[in-house]
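As a warm-up, study this chain.
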Amino acid sequence: MSTHDENQSASARLGGLSYLNPAAPEPWASFIEQIERVRPYLGPLERWIETLKHPKRTLIVDVPIERDDGSIAHFEGYRVQHNLSRGPGKGGIRFHPAVTLNEVMALAGWMTVKNAAIGLPFGGAKGGIRVDPSSLSKGELQRMTRRFTSEIGLIIGPDRDIPAPDVGTNAMTMAVMMDTFSMNRGGTATGVVTGKPIALGGSLGRQEATGRGVYLCAREAGKHQHIPMEGARVVVQGFGNVGGIAARLFRAAGSRVIAIADHTATLANDAGIDIPAAQAWVAEHGGLAGFDGAAPIDIEDFWQLECEYLVPAALEGQITPERASRVRAKVVVEGANGPTTPAADDVLRDRSVLVVPDVLANAGGVTVSYFEWVQDFSSFFWTEDEINARLERIMVSAFDAIWQVAQEKQVPLRTAAFIIACHRVLEARAERGLYP
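Now compare it with the structure written out below.
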């Protein structure tokens, strides 16, 4: 086969999209492979499967700002709307130096599947800027966020596409985005983003929602696997808004968190780590490095610690086939998006390690974002207890439905989640038809 033919073949595997680099296919290639694994279960809807391999809209923007020293800096920004068949786009905004179009496309695709698997009336979207936010001053970061919001303002809105926080962004980022969109529109539009501060129409329980959803899914998986939470050993990669909160909830349930890791350190303590103390340390010092409640270990040793629950809650692509071959957990609960490659999925399945997929396990955040969006429209807000009760009901119901499909079809939970989601998305696509 010629180099030209090989490139064409690689391009076809990526959905036939010319703007992707076949030499660097991840993580979009992982998403495409996950879609292909559902093909045999789609029946008549299979004729629409290519819909899922072609993002509806991809926007690349230049984000120029004036630095504090008077110089001009340019950053590359993205907003991808993968599929809007079931409702407006929904997905986070990521500020990270490694952000690429490929990554944002995959994240948008996973959001399509996640929203459909949970049953939320949203399509999938995602955005980001290729930047290290820690390298910017507060003023520079605000100017960059405002310019980016103005650039993507063409395609976002409360009934079009609703961003939320992700890696490198937070409630204040959403406040600036909401204010910028509102100023450009000439009226306050609280529903254009979720994950906002409470004073600006944010929802109680939103900050903890993703970590809470991870814990709830682990708990439900433990019931099926006969693993009691009391005394269970837990290993958590990522100690921010997802991993840190999940670790705290595990500990509150009587589990023993024996290892934690972030971008600054990897720590272990077989007797159990004081999670509130670790969170307080991170809040003061910006990372786990220097925390004396556990001993440093090598990151590769981290992945092979014997435990009941392993929670990858950092970035995608962390569990490779090589790492999967050494994992000694009974259950992997994906707090991050795409932390396990398809090849690693196969290794874990062959080793009888249960994987609770990201499109289910970390859906707590978007579920409470949905609550926030609904509350903004109605200007009527629920209590935190009501939020948490509604979240638990939706997450447990979705888990049960996905578990049932997995048992009936003898497939992994990820494939089961994709079967449910793809049926819902493609049925909506078929019912709507093609325009014009």
